[in-house]
Each structure stands twice: as structure tokens, then as C-alpha cells.
Design brief:
Length: 459
Amino acid sequence: MIQREAAPVFEASVPVLIVGAGAAGLTAALAAAGQGAEVWVLERDAVPRGSTSLSAGLVPAAGTRFQAANGITDEAALFAADIQAKAKHRADPRIVATVSREAAGTIGWLADAHGLPFSLVHDFDYPGHSRRRMHGLPSRSGQELVDRLRAAAEAAGVTILTEARVERLIAEGDAIRGVVAVRPDGSEERLGCRALVLACCGYGGDPALVRAHIPQLAGALYFGHPGNTGDAIRWGEALGARLADMSGHQGHGSVAEPGGILVTWAVIMEGGFQVNAAGCRFWNEAQGYSEAAQAVLAQPGGIAWDIFDARVAGIARQFEDFANAERAGLIVTASDADELAARLKLPALAATLAEVEALKRAGARDAFGRDWAGSAPLAPPYCAVRVTGALFHTQGGLAVDGAARVLRADGAPLPNLFAAGGAARGVSGPEASGYLSGNGLLTAVVLGRLAGEGAARLA
Ligand SMILES: Cc1cc2nc3c(=O)[nH]c(=O)nc-3n(C[C@H](O)[C@H](O)[C@H](O)COP(=O)(O)OP(=O)(O)OC[C@H]3O[C@@H](n4cnc5c(N)ncnc54)[C@H](O)[C@@H]3O)c2cc1C
């Protein structure tokens, strides 16, 4: 894993090497190239995709011009407070302060310097965000985000070596001197660097690590990129780096089953709710989709149904995934509550629906603690989709400082090692419930930018 060599020799050397070509790695590459450094990105897949391509590509930021254009005032301190409120104040305050302060500038830089056409998701609220601050590209897909970042990186002169899986780091003392990358034919390449950025995400693709750190989701569907197998964590550990918040993760309790297509949580936040196989509600859905994974998996068969209506479906349709779920015939529709209950074979559903609508009319709080005041009513035709819980990505990782430098167990930074995105400790604390929407891409693009700038300065 870590190969220790004195005065190592390499086939080629560049100032900045980056492992992983997802949002974190490509943003780091753009930032390093912007400082004039020569940059190579090493990516194990034939085409850069990562978990980034599986996401909705939404990045939260406070105080952007895109918010201002929608009449929204927001600021970093409010954003930081929202992140910490969701994480029950257990997220690293230094990283929270850094990412909430730097996010607006990062979105503006990607838009202005690299032509990424961000716009604000202005028509619904994400739980826990006290302002509308999600920024996305036209298709609202992570695929578009990673494709546009890659095109921008290539335009900026970054070399992206695909089918190059980094297997070992070469270190001399505490300093990283280079890496060994393995090609599909088994051949190895030794590449030297002056600074290394780990952007190879977390450990969701390694069942043994998931079992060790997130036992409650052991065996659950992993919805992230299978190539994210915890390499950064293993290398960091072997180098004496500190790991933090290892049990933290983003789950999701609304993945269509069968079909495996993400159904946006907007269907719940816009007035929908979840029922189990008995047709009954079982928790306060307003807590968030991340903790929904455990709540749904704890139901009989690990299954639930999202219940909503045609108005809500209209909002959800802006997400390609939802439109795909509709095209795949996964969204059940019915002209009234009895027909929906009959089609889903959930006799108690009609009464549950009536109860929820009565709570909305009364502006009351239910027994699970969900406050229905101001929630829009559901009206026929009704919609439903059968869902399960899944692990999306892990939020624990290498402890870093405000400049994305990897920290040793004693708190001192390693001399030339940086980490960003899923490879680094996130801002969600140690629990699934600490994940605020957008925390994943927030640390990918913001720490990615800072890591790239820092690596270029050092190199
Ligand atoms: C379905 C889904 C929806 C999501 N929606 C959102 C959202 O809307 N907003 C949000 O903020 N977050 C979201 N997330 C989380 C978000 O996708 C991640 O937090 C983010 O993509 C992490 O970026 P990254 O660059 O660190 O990792 P990735 O995008 O996964 O990139 C890591 C790359 O490293 C490569 N790699 C791994 N190991 C090696 C190695 N040894 N050598 C070479 N290459 C290697 C991988 O192949 C991969 O391409 C979602 C996640 C999922 C799964």
C-alpha cells in the first residue's frame, strides 16, 4: 500500500498528481492548472464518472449571484449554522467554516472561469437549509457536472490518464514522492510528483469496511460508485494520518425497488409521505432522506412506498431520474385514494392518506413529530412508488485542515498530501442524520479547489 523508498526513481514526474477524476479531483485539477502547475489526474475507470455522475449534481452555496437573482439573501454564517444544526454540532468547525465561506466563490469561479452554467433550484426547499441554496446544471444531473468539469479540465491543459488505478503510494519519510498505477493489462507505471491530492472518494464500495464502520447498513444496496473502495483511507492510515467521523454517511430512503432509480426526496418535502407494507406511516419523514435509509430498511422487507400526487410529480420531473422512473413504469397513479390503496394492495392506505390531509388542514404535528403546518395538500390523481433504503456514499475519511492538507494523528499536516471530497472527513459528523443535502459535493468542489490551489503552490 505504502512503498517506502529512499531517492525513488520514476518513469515520469509532474508537479501535481491527483488520484480520482470525480468532482473533487477535476475541480482540484482546474484549480492547480489555474495556478500554472502541470497536473495529471489518474482515474481507474475508462471514462471519469465516479459517484459524482450518480448524483443530482447539486452544490449548496450561500451568497451567490444566482440566489440574488431570485431575491434570496443568504450568508456563510447562516449556511454554517444549518450544517452544524443538522450534524448536531459534531462536524469539524474549521472545515464547516471553510466550506461555507468558500462555496459561493467556488460556484462563481466554476461558472465564470470555466463556463459551467449553474442555476439555483428555486422551487422547493431541502430539509435543513434555511435558504434555497442548491445550485445545479441544466439537466440537474451529476453526469453533466462531471462531463463539464472534465471538458473544462482538458481545455485547461490537464492530462487525465484513464484506466490507471493507483495501487500504492511511494513515500520517503513523511513525504509522498509518487505513485504506482496499475493498467488493465497488469503493467505498472511509476509516476513522481511534488504534491499529491487524494480525490478517490470513500469506502462505500468495500463491503468489509462498510460492515466495520456502518454496521446498520451492512448488506444494504450501495448506490454509489463501485470503484470507491477506501484506498485513500488505507493509504492515510498507513501514513499515520488521522481518520475522523468514519461512521458518517449519506443514506437515502427513496430508491425505487425494483428499478434502482433514485426518487427525489422532493416528493416527500412537497407534501408527500411514506407508508410501510401495512399502509401505515412509520416515522417523521421531514428529518431527511439520509436517515430515511435506516428507517425504511427497518420496515418489513426493507420496503416502503412514497405517496404523493400529480402536482408533486410535476415538480419532481425536473430531475432526470424521476422522469426515468416514470418512463420505466415505476410510478403508480390512481384517480382516488381507494383506487391507489387497491392498486398497491395496501388497504390501510386510504385511511392514512385521510389522516395526513386532516393534519395538514389543522396545521398540526403528528405522533412522529412531523409538523404539517403550511404543507400543501395532496389531491387526486395520486401517485406512489415502491422504495428501499440504500447507502449513497461515506462521509468519514482523512482529517484535513482548512487548506485541505491531510493531518497526522498529532494534528500536524503531512508535508505534501491533500484530500478532498469523499476521501476527506466531511461536514456531517459521525451519524447519517448529520448529512445535510449537498454536503457531499460541497466538500468535493470546495476542498477540491483548495487542495488544487495548495498543491500547486507547494509544487
Ligand atoms: C445517487 C447519489 C446521489 C447524490 N446526490 C448528491 C447531490 O445532489 N448533492 C451532493 O452534494 N452530493 C450528492 N451525492 C454525493 C456525491 O455524489 C459525492 O459526495 C461526490 O460525488 C464525491 O465526489 P468525489 O470526487 O469525492 O468522488 P467520486 O465522484 O466518486 O470520484 C472518485 C473517483 O476516484 C476514482 N478512484 C477510486 N479509487 C481510485 C484509485 N485507486 N485509483 C484511481 N482512481 C480511483 C473512482 O473511479 C472515481 O472516478 C450523491 C451520491 C449518490 C451516490
